[in-house]
Write a structure and sequence with these properties.
This protein is an alpha+beta fold. It contains 4 helices and 6 strands, in the order αβββββαβαα. The mean pLDDT is about 75.
Length: about 150
Amino acid sequence: MSAVSRSMARPLEDMARDLRPGPVRREARPETAANDNGVPRPHPSSALPPDALAIIEPTPIATNQSGRARRDRWRLRFAARARSFVDPLTGWTGGSDPLAHLVLRFPTVEAAERYCRLQHLRFEVLQPASRSARAMPIRPDPFGEHQERSRHA
C-alpha cells in the first residue's frame, strides 16, 4: 500500500470509529400527529377532524331498476364543512373540504354506528322513508271532474 492510499484511508477509519452520540431524538407526543404542526387532536385514535359530522343513511336505489339486491346496505357520508366555490379563471367548481367526496358503505346500520364510535365521530342516522310515504299521493283528476259537471249541466 502506498503512502498516498494510506493517507486517504485514514480519515474514513476515524469516521468509522467515531463513538460520539448521534442526533438527539425528540419523543413524539401521543396527542399530536406527525404532520399536524403540534395541534392537539381531540382523541389520539381518530385521524378525522374534530368538527366532522357523519351522516348514516340507506344506500339510494336507482329509480330505473326494479331489483331488490343491496337494498339493505347503508352508506356513511360526511356533512359539508365548507362551501364549494367557482374558480374565476377556469369556471371549475372546487372546495377545501377533503371529506366531501368520502363515502363508506356498510352492510348494516349497526356496523356504521360501531365505526363512528370507534373513530370518535359525531353521527346522525337518517331512517329510510316507508314505502307508502315515498309513493306519490293520488289526487283526483280535475279535468275529469270538469267534464262530468259540463255533461250534467
